[in-house]
Amino acid sequence: TAAVCQRGTPVRCGQAIRLTHLGTGRNLHSHRFTSPLSGNQEVSAFGEAGEGDYLDDWTVVCSGTYWVRDDEVRFQHTSTNVFLSVTGEQYGRPIHGQKEVHGMATSSQNNYWKVMEGIFMQPSEAFQMEQYHAEL
């Protein structure tokens, strides 16, 4: 949240991050407004070129030390404590069938996320050294 994350830098469980949409430069954002379909907390896109505010910060909730590519993860909004979620509510317009993403107050199966596609970045050299360092 304070600086741009360099490619290959591992993300720690419990770390606050911002998720920026590459196409629009907007951040995943939430605030205490009601979402239109489910009545949960609204999640939207906010900011310009990755710049935003404290309402764009999400805590990575996972087991272990780092967010691992093949593991499920949760994102908890740092200001309102809701979990990033998706349920069955679907929009009719503007994109028919698009599901509503919203914030839920409680953790459930609806707020687990898993990386399904994208580009895998090799961990940084410093991280690799940390993983294999052993005291004598």
Automatic annotation (TrEMBL):
- Keyword Metal-binding in the entry? The reply is no
Q: Where is the signal peptide?
A: none
Q: Where is the MIR domain?
A: 8-63, 64-118
Q: Which domain of life is it from?
A: Eukaryota
Write out the entry's keywords from A to Z: Repeat, Signal
**UniProt keyword Repeat present:** yes
Annotated SMART domains: MIR
Q: Which Pfam families match?
A: MIR (PF02815)
Name this protein carries in UniProt = SDF2 factor
